[in-house]
Specification:
The chain is of the alpha+beta class. The chain is 14% helix and 25% strand. The protein is built from 14 helices and 54 strands. The strands form 13 sheets. Strands 2, 3, 6, 7, 8, 23, 24, 26 and 27 form a 9-stranded mixed sheet that branches. It has an 8-stranded parallel sheet with strand order 41-40-39-32-29-28-43-42. The chain has a 6-stranded antiparallel sheet with strand order 46-48-49-54-51-52. It is globular and about 95 Å long. The protein starts with 19 loop residues before the first helix and ends in a 20-residue tail after the last strand. Residues 1-45 and 145-160 have low confidence and may be disordered. It holds the Pfam family CBM_25. One of its GO terms (molecular function) is metal ion binding. Residues 1-38 form the signal peptide.
Amino acid sequence: MRRTTAWRLRRPWVPLAAAAALLISLLPALHGAGTALAATPTADETGNTATVFYYTKTRNWSQYYLHYAPDGAAWTQVPGTAMETGCTDWVKKTVSLGTATTWQATFNNGSGTWDNNGGQNYALGTGTITVKDGVIAHSDPCGDDNGSTDPSPSPTSSSSTTSATVFYSTQNVGWSTVNLHYAPTGGAWTTVPGIAMEQACPGWFKKTVDLAGAAGLAATFNNGNGTWDNNNGANYALTTGVSTVKDTTVTKNATDPCASYEPDTTAPTAPTAVKATATDTSIVLTWDPATDDTAVTGYQVTRTGGTKGSQVTSVGSTVLSESGLEADTTYTYTVRALDAAGNISAASDTASATTGEAPPAAAQGTMLGGDPRKDPIYFVLTARFYDGDSSNNRGGNQDVASGNAANHDPMFRGDFKGLVQKLDYIKALGFSAVWITPVVLNRSDYDYHGYHGWDFYKVDPRLESAGASYQDLINAAHAKGMKIYQDVVYNHSSRWGAKGLFVPTVYGVRDSQWSWYYDEKQPGFEYDGLTVEPTSGKSYYNGDLWSTTEPTGNTCLNWGKPTGSKSPEGYTLYNCQWPSPTSGMFPSKYYHQCWIGNWEGEDSRSCWLADDLADFNTENPTVQNYLIGAYDKYIDMGVDGFRIDTAVHIPRVTWNRRFLPAIQERVAQDWGPDKAQDFFVFGEVGAFVNDKWNRGSVNHSAQFYTWKERKTYTDDDVQAALDQYTYEENLGTGNQPTSTNAFLSGNSYHTPDHSQFSGMNIIDMRMHMNFGDAHNAFNNGKDSDDSTNDATYNVVYVDSHDYGPNKSSVRYTGGQDAWAENMALMWTFRGIPTLYYGSEIQFQAGKTIDCGPSCPLATTGRAYYGDHLEGTVTTSDFSKADSATGEVATTLAQPLVKHLQRLNQIRRAIPALQMGQYSTDGVSGGGMDFKRRYTDTAAGVDSFALVAVTDGATYSGIPNGTYKDAVTGDVRQVTDGTLTVAAPGKGNLRVYVLDLGGKNAAPGKIGTDGPYLK
């Protein structure tokens, strides 16, 4: 944990000008050169069709038009085709897609005001679709039959002799759309996803269905976008009459939960303090939260300006970040607030900003998507990996004192150019995801690692080069089929604050003692860590941070008065000379005001970790806006996930209310709901003990962060954090939710229940702390899995840039055999295997991981790795080096590298090892032995494997059939449900795969024998 921007161009804007003639003249440029205008397709043409419903209550336009283009076809004539009345608050249109199965759509009022999904257009498919305030779902809000296969009369009718009225609670699942998928007793199921339920009152959806004489029904519920509540695989058994379903509890013959509800007709207050800030051709808009008599559920932002007309965008947070706008253009914004009943506030006061010139930008990046469990992770400190461009190397003000200068080893040495050049090395090892340290502009004494963020909206120029921007790195990785996971920090900034939010002014004086330290202020010079200020000759210039004159609004007591103490050099120290939480230099609005006193107490979530890590007041909306807006920009660039630093130091309720939904919202807006499911978020919850619950505190345990909240707290985020802490601590460890998502049911895979998933996965601290011995890590890891929402997504590593096992301060020093055994376990057990750079050759084994500037980096676990990568390497596939020359060829020939390459080959070929649930039931032998299975019926995938790491095992009660070992090729016929495996030896393993034929045939031996796998 201790550790110039080229934003991608957004997708082309749809035509937005008010005048149709101007729009038509612009269309070829905006939709693709040479694209002809098409006549409006009609629904009765042959081919695929889609019916789209559009929500009108929060728009209140007089007319509604659908402007669209099936993929591969031209856009309709502006403004599109008029939509028809569907039912109250909805309009609809059925369109022909021809042979296309996907299409892009936008909506407008026919007079120049557009909803184009924040510039992304809506990506839609076939069938029935709803678009409500920016959210896409798949259901019929007007209650049509929707293709039911039920042979009984219409499922929405209640005219027959028996009916059932079903109420479903969304209070804790957080869905905005609910479908009822059901089957009357003895009857057929409705067509997936079922029939739409109507919102009856806040937190409850309702549907009455005809049972055609049946005495009951089996029911499941879903949100229309692939998330289901099927009673943990058992379905719900409901009866006639009124039933309620809340948090998997069914109440039969229930009273109407909405009977006493008075319809909400009161609109929220208008948002205030609307502020627009432009950087290049990007604008960040923020505002203070509105209030409502129930709750504000979202906001509607209207933007005017430029040549493309007005645009309306729906957002869930109090920040909107837009990129790729027109240069030198003034844009004006107003914001309205919405509540759950669809009431909409008056418009806020306007806010305006004028864009500058567009910076040169790399080609647009696109998030890869795909299940993150398929992708083993290689973790690099970018600045210490490989130096592709020496011109951006910087040693900082500790270069000499640290001893780095004597080694010609500046702290900022590696860069994106070097990482791009060595992506083939990482791919040749077999990794398809790269976790990189934070990229934002840092500012501290020793900030090469990236965890001292200062300007969160700017990529640190010490990492970039011409043709090797951050965007270029993302694009280069994606071109090789590799993901980029960006390390992000929400908890703290540098000790110098955060540019654009608050930067403290410290007392300084250029006298005979301090002129060496305080650089003279140079008007117009802006710190970026790279550019050398001419007068001082420093890239680490600080002239903008200090003042002899007390600043306006100063709250630091005794400004500039001597403290009575001296520095180590004997110089006079002054009050307000150095940032700290208790000095009064940081306003409580933006930063917390205390030091942590109890690392397992509530204050660990609301106080400073260290004097160089100024702790954000993350419960403040302005701080939330700043961080959400910043990280939206990196999502826009196409990163594939976030590793969240110091996640435990922010209350879970703040993550669940603010930051995690904002991430999902932005990814869905940019890349669609399917890829939003794949955006991988994994948090560092630093529980450095060997017990299941961190010293008995649930709030400080890693698995706690994988769950949603179980109750509703006050709207005040500060009080909610305190209430949540107290509530969960009082419940204790014995009353936390449990999950079977990681476990097989016998030998069978079951659909996991993610309805209570928070959106944050975790680094497996339990296994990490116990990797002094692989057996210990295995047994401890299993012990925590029932309290984690889904442990198959755990990120598993032995050591990192912070600690080795058992909170060791040195890089893992267990030896090559132990490393081989650790890797064999990580690459076959549940979770995502992750390797810290260089561990493939036991780089810096036993060396202190981090000693700050008190020793040279070359002597630590964060040493420069590039010397081992000199030469060339090319690869055409994972785990395969097609060619290699120089020192990197020697590196690739090392025993653990060969072991790692083959492990990645085996894992990549067997779905059960990537995404499977596991069980040790019926497995005897006492070692690291287990069975895993992954089944995806829709994709036709069924993969069952028996794994034995190091030790022998007997597997009882398994399916009969042919099993083939992926390591040796050995074939076994099981006829009595039992298979016995001899001990393969330390670092070796056996993976017997059940041969199910066809695409699920066992692969047999994978790869060639090496030093351990044989």
